[in-house]
Design a protein that fits this description.
Number of helices: 12
Radius of gyration: 22 Å
Strand content: 15-25%
CATH architecture of the largest domain: 2-Layer Sandwich
Number of strands: 18
Shape: globular
CATH superfamily of the largest domain: CbiD-like
Order of helices and strands: EHEEEEEEEEHHEHEEEHEHEHEHHHHHEE
Number of domains: 2
Strand order of the largest sheet: 4-5-6-10-7
């Protein structure tokens, strides 16, 4: 059973004399999951007149989790609820953030759910993120998850009314200063994120050890191929593409590219497949050994160089160089039919970079998917 997302589940920060306790591998919850839980609790309050102290919420991955709810209040036409984020072990800057949902009825719009961003939720100011410019930085998966939970909890009201949902984060603008949001063109607050609802402590020693262990298991089973992915969507993608491989071949490495490849070499596995999206692959091509977004930003000079090799003109390359994301480049190149060529060159750059680091140690193949997990390109070493 999933733990309650309450303050009591938070790991203690330190031991005697301020010594930090050893961090574990306890998962937490995303800003998107906490927003959905707050919205569901407020919707329940709209229906019953009282916001519950705990709410069972369905995550994007289909699991149901019980969250503690605070500041719950409701009237006949509006409701308010807060869920405090528990990020698990090795929490990020949004740990303890108060994800807040304010709902109000829309009398003349039956069946509609309107989602808005309030204070502390960033505003998108540039293309390239897959979100509407000028709209709230609420990513597509949490957006859908929030609306689905409100639709379930508020079904009785939606027969005759619409519901407006406003997600806000007190101190979100302050938190955002410790993220890369500004570089990505997101201003005024944090992003509401999460593709599964679960936060994995990617940067902990325990998770790094689990990546290495997964590769060791594949080697012990006699597998000659290991498939490395950066997250859940890319893993599902490569599993669909490579159904002939045993489950042990698939290892979610998160951002730990170097530890994973070191383990591949140490265990003598001759074939490596990397499944990824454009942003992470640019990080690999530029030589990053840890591909976390909080590390060095995407090298847009490299992205522009690859775009030029793919056939993009000087003006477009200048725009790409001045942008903040690899996704921006891919979208612009897709408009002129150069996205496939761009991805092929990118895949070859990844192979060249990693082959230079591990000369003759393994054969490499790169599978590239879009942000919905659909295949876009495949590149093999010579």
């Amino acid at each position: 059973m999933q733990p309650l997302a309450t303050e009591d589940t938070r790991p203690k920060a330190s031991g005697p004399r301020g010594r930090k306790k050893k961090r574990g591998n306890r998962t937490g919850f995303t800003t998107g999951a906490c927003s959905a839980a707050a919205a569901r609790a407020a919707a329940a309050g709209l229906v019953t007149g009282s916001v519950p102290a705990r709410i069972r919420c369905r995550l994007p991955n289909g699991k149901e989790v019980t969250f503690a709810v605070s500041e719950g209040r409701a009237t006949k036409t509006s409701a308010h609820a807060v869920v405090v984020k528990d990020a698990g072990d090795d929490p990020d800057v949004t740990n303890r953030a108060r994800l807040t949902a304010d709902l109000r009825l829309l009398p003349d719009r039956p069946g509609e759910i309107v989602l808005r961003g309030g204070p502390g939720v960033g505003t998108v100011t540039q293309p390239g993120l897959g979100l509407e410019v000028g709209g709230p930085a609420i990513n597509p998966v949490p957006r859908k998850n929030i609306c689905e939970n409100v639709a379930e909890a508020g079904a009785a009201l939606l027969e005759t009314h619409g519901i407006e949902v406003t997600i806000s984060v007190p101190d979100g603008e302050k938190m955002a200063k410790r993220t890369l949001n500004g570089r990505l063109g997101i201003v005024g607050g944090i992003s509401i994120l999460g593709t599964t609802g679960i936060v994995h402590p990617w940067s902990t020693a325990a998770f790094r050890a689990s990546v290495i262990q997964g590769i060791e298991v594949a080697a012990r089973q006699g597998q000659d191929t290991v498939v490395l992915t950066t997250g859940g969507r890319t893993e599902k993608f490569v599993m669909r593409e490579l159904p002939q491989l045993a489950p042990a071949c698939f290892v979610q490495m998160g951002d730990f590219l170097k530890p994973a490849l070191d383990a591949v070499v140490e265990n003598g596995i001759p074939k490596v497949v990397i499944g990824g999206m454009v942003g992470k692959l640019v990080k690999m091509a530029q030589g990053e050994t840890i591909t976390h977004a909080g590390r060095n930003p995407v090298n847009t000079d490299l992205v522009a160089e690859i775009a030029a090799e793919a056939g993009a003109g000087e003006a477009l390359c200048k725009t790409i160089r001045e942008a903040n994301t690899a996704r921006f480049a891919l979208e612009r190149l897709a408009e002129i039919g150069l996205d496939a060529r761009f991805l092929e060159i990118l895949g070859r750059r990844v192979i060249a970079t990693l082959s230079a680091r591990y000369p003759g140690k393994f054969r490499l193949r790169v599978l590239i998917c879009d942000f919905e997990g659909n295949k876009m390109a495949e590149v093999r070493d010579a």
